[in-house]
Amino acid sequence: MSTGSVPIVTPPLGEWAFDRRGPEHSKRVYDWWGRHDWAYRAFVNGYLLGREGAFRTRTVESLGLDPGDWVLDVGCGPGPNFDVLADAVGPTGALVGVDASEGMVERATARGTTLDCSATVLQADAARLPLRDASVDAACATLSLSAMPDIPAVVDQLARVLRPGGRLAVLDARPFEAAYARWLNPFIERAAAYLTNWYPDADIVGAVDERFADTTLRTFQGGSIYVLTGRNGTER
Question: Of the four listed, 49, 83, 95, 184, which is most buried by Cβ atoms within 10 Å?
């Protein structure tokens, strides 16, 4: 919750939205989004001001994927990244999607059948990835990590399953940093907590910077949207 914000939304309502967050709420919310893919896409694209495709493409391109690579999509949702990921790794590559929501996994699995590369979608908790150590060449997480309560655990898992030197790219959202837009934060934080299980205070940047090398951060839309990249390895 942003500090110093004017409590435009009454505290009881705001705390109610935050208090509902958790695994069960997340499952209900994302199973609903999975059954209403059109609403999910409209919601995400609206928040990204019509630039959803451009942001997703930018994130995937920052991985520097080569044909034949194995790539992991964490919190893959209904698979909106799948086409661009599959194009990058080609027929000799492989894509693994992971999501905790049964509804999202069903959608993503159906989408995976249309790709030109091998695609597997698993229902699992990102804090306990069912993958072998050093089994993927790259990983991305788009608008998903900030809906997870234990960011350090998820980042540790990403480092575990990535090969040494493997690339991570994160597209995510956080409260507005620009002064002209901060007044919106109380509304957005509470609505998104209910609608997406959002944790606006999640220190994703800090967790990735602690665990990964060569991190870079680019921000957009008043600091509320960012693309974060890093390389797996202990050398900094």
Answer: 95
Strand ranges for 1-117 from DSSP E: 70-74, 94-99
Which residues constitute the domain of residue 84? Answer: 11-231
Does residue 1 lie within any of the structural domains? no
Reference 80, options 111, 110, 50; nearest CA is 111
Residues with Cβ within 8 Å of residue 214, at least 6 apart in sequence: 229, 230, 231, 236
Question: DSSP secondary structure string, 139-179?
Answer: EEEES-GGG-S-HHHHHHHHHHHEEEEEEEEEEEE----SG
pTM of the model: 0.86
CA distance 223 to 100: 28
Tell me: pLDDT of 235 over 60. Answer: no
Q: From CA 9, how far away is CA 29, in angstroms rounded?
A: 22
Spatial distance between the Cα atoms of 27 and 217, rounded to a whole number of angstroms: 30
Contact 166, 70 (CB under 8 A): no
CA distance 61 to 185: 30
In this structure, is residue 149 part of a structural domain? yes
Q: Based on the structure, what is the number of domains in the chain?
A: 1
| 127-139 pLDDT tens trace | 999 999 999 999 9
CATH of the domain at 221: 3.40.50.150
Residue 19, Cβ density class (10 Å: 0-12 exposed, 13-18 middle, ≥19 buried): exposed
